[in-house]
Amino acid sequence: MERIDLDHWKAREVARLLTLVENDRRYYQEILTSLPIPVAVVSRELHVAMVNRAFRLAFQLKHEELGDKRLDDLIAAPEVRERILSAFETNSPEPGMRFTMTGADKGKKVCRLTVIPLWDAYQDRPQEAIVVIEEPDTVVSPAARLLDALGAAAWQSDPRTGEVAFANGAASSFLAETSSQWTDRVHPADASRVAWVYEAAIESGAEAMVEYRSAKRENRWLADRIHPVLEEGNVVGLEVITVDETEARRRRTQAVQHAEMEATMRLAQQVAHEFNNLWMIVTGYAEVMAERAGGDEEVSSGLEAIQKAAERGILSTAQLLQFGRPATSYPRPVDLRETLRGFGTEMELRGAAAPIGALLDPVRFEPCLQALVEFVRARLAEHAQGYIQTEERTVVADLADGLPRGQFAALRLGPIASPTPKLLQQWCHPFYSEAEKAASIGLAPCYAQIRQMGGWVTLETLSCGDAEFVVFFPLARLPEPVRPPAAVAAPVEAPADTASARLETILVVDDEESIRNLVARVLSRSGYGVLVAESGEEGVRTAEEYEGAIGLVLTDVMLPGMRGPEMAARVRKTRTGVRTLYISGYMDDPDLVSGILPAGEGFLQKPFTLQSLLQTVRGVLDEPLSRKN
To answer: Partner of 282 at 20 to 30 A CA spacing, among 99, 103, 159, 295?
Structure first.
């Protein structure tokens, strides 16, 4: 291209043209200076010809230093040099190149570089280029900023080298500080497993997910969702979202533990019921054999040993039943703080002085509170003071751990010094102990009874490393105080008729043949008439077919098919004056407590002695009919 000949121009015209050019230059320089991102003009030899204020601040440059600086002195990244030289040769812009820039004050940060070559009409090729550097705050897209707010790390890596090519702001809390390689953030114990997942994702091109412990903190769990970037069927990059799974994992584990606990409780209930039937057979027939042993000391001592062993088994079964089916509770609105004051514990009572209404059963709650307090006291640090704090708490999150939404009266007990991971995970397990051998059933019944009252109890860690129990009960409105009614003298009951018949007929219904035959034998030997049946349906038929009077129906509560209470009710419809005695292998049978069984009927807990059986039968038969419902 020929140079423009300005010799024939007048001096005034040339001056006016130069003024216009200078004004345009100043205008564009002002725009360049005001840009908030670093911008520089570099030559083909990468000498820095001009920079704006943002560029000088980013690289901590002074005006007098610009003449001696090259761009590759400021950005020590070979790929940057190659990209700029390529833009000069092709005269094509090179946008969006990502690189890691190292600064003395800010450490490593991921930036994006754009190169725009400037065509020189005299040289017929680009002699200078504009270099634009976008720092992380301008690189992050709205979606990445959203991930920052959610605490998730979004990052890209090279599948060949493992180098992190891009990471959002939240990634700094997840990625290791010593290296840009993703493997440095994985705990060594999980490294091989995580590497296998990444290798499988790279080889197959399929999305994958993996959870692992953090190398910075072993008790912190992270989760990577890996998305391979494909070009022409080849994986050229990995896009990864990393989230902190510690709390979610803890809640999932807790939910699984609670489900396992419920299943264990049901299993314990059934096993204990079967054992009660077995102990009933052992102790009952041991009593019968002891009566016939006479003066044989060897037989008597053997039967005595059997009885003692059975007693130990009965105590263990009672513990198992206490865990498997806690006593039925009757929650009612109570003042939680007043209940704690009446408890009289040495723990420091914290919280507002205002009453807090909680829906709970105070009779069942007191032993639970005592168990929790003793548990905390045994694990207090030296010179530490235990506390019980009451407060109202609102739960609005829909969590997977079973805690419902709503308002609660909360109770916090602590502190438990330096809880072990085993303690945090297994404190409510039956027969849990921090020693090698468990000494007792522990807090399992306490946990079960609080849950049965409609409450919730969990062991939570504190920021200081200690832990505390948090107990939730539904918030309740306290009733207005009322004056107690005037005492009314109870009516004097007529004495029982001691001359009543002693040879009543008793219908014995039990699905366990050995227990049914044992009870029938003892009653028959004592002079009673006995009818036997092994199910509720058979008991009803036997009562209908028997022509004589039936004085008592002795039945197990849990019968196959028709249950004991239903069977007894059908018998009473056709035979007036029939008493009922229920026997059950369940401790504190819920049917009896909840009122399904008629009030005033007899109840005998398995296993029972033959003497207690005869006494209870006689007591029920001698009870005046006027007291029956």
So the answer is: 295
For helices 246-293 and 297-324, angle between their N-to-C axes, nearest 10 degrees: 150
Q: Give the E-state strand segments of 107-194 in sequence order.
A: 107-120, 125-134, 153-157, 164-167
Highest mean pLDDT among 121-125, 208-212, 317-321, 623-627 belongs to: 208-212
CA distance 282 to 427: 35
Answer yes or no: are the C-beta atoms of 118 and 91 closer than 8 Å: no
Query: For the whole prediction, is pTM greater than 0.70?
Result: no
H or E element, residue 585? none
Tokens of 460: 């939570």
Nearest-angstrom CA–CA distance, 370 and 366: 6
Which of the listed ranges 324-333, 391-400, 588-597 does the model predict with the highest average pLDDT?
A: 391-400
E strand spans, 6-93: 39-43, 48-51
Sign of the torsion formed by the C-alpha atoms of 608, 611, 614 and 620: negative
Which has the closest alpha carbon to 266: 320, 228, 223?
Answer: 320
Which of 570, 568, 549, 551 shows the shortest CA–CA distance to 618? 551
**For residues 484-495, average pLDDT:** 46
The sign of the dihedral angle between the CA atoms of 528, 533, 537, 543 is: negative
Contact 467, 424 (CB under 8 A): yes
